[in-house]
Write a structure and sequence with these properties.
about 130 residues, mainly alpha, about 80% helix, globular
């Protein structure tokens, strides 16, 4: 419940992402870490991390999500880089969207279409 609360707080702070990108990223990442740790406690460390998270058909998305989450935490806490935190958070959210969509039938194609339409709109505006 604390993880969900932290993610909710990060979503409420989303309009302030231009000013406080590190706060939004930290709240989101700590919320995700707490949720992942709660699943690890619920199913056991081996049952969750090995069998369900990293060794499955979704392992590429899970590994990409964990790497981008680590990069986001690194750039937010250690380097304190505004731009790199924002970039890492954007990639982290993309990997999370693909990871969650992989659980739904036909979900990956839908996320790909939405992201390509967003990219086309962004490039047309710029």
């Amino acid at each position: 419940m604390i993880g969900c609360f932290l993610i909710l707080l990060s979503l409420l702070m989303l309009p302030f992402i231009i000013i406080q990108v590190r706060s939004v990223a930290n709240l989101f990442n700590f919320g995700v870490i707490l949720i992942l740790l709660s699943f690890s406690v619920l199913w056991g460390a081996r049952g969750f991390w090995i069998d369900r998270f990293f060794i499955s058909s979704r392992s590429a998305y899970a590994i990409g999500f964990v790497i981008t989450m680590g990069l986001c935490i690194y750039y937010s806490f250690i380097k304190e880089s505004y731009l790199m935190t924002l970039v890492a958070l954007a990639f982290e959210l993309c990997f999370l969207a693909y990871f969650i969509a992989s659980y739904f039938p036909g979900g990956i194609d839908g996320v790909t279409r939405v992201l390509s339409a967003a990219w086309a709109t962004l490039t047309a505006c710029c």
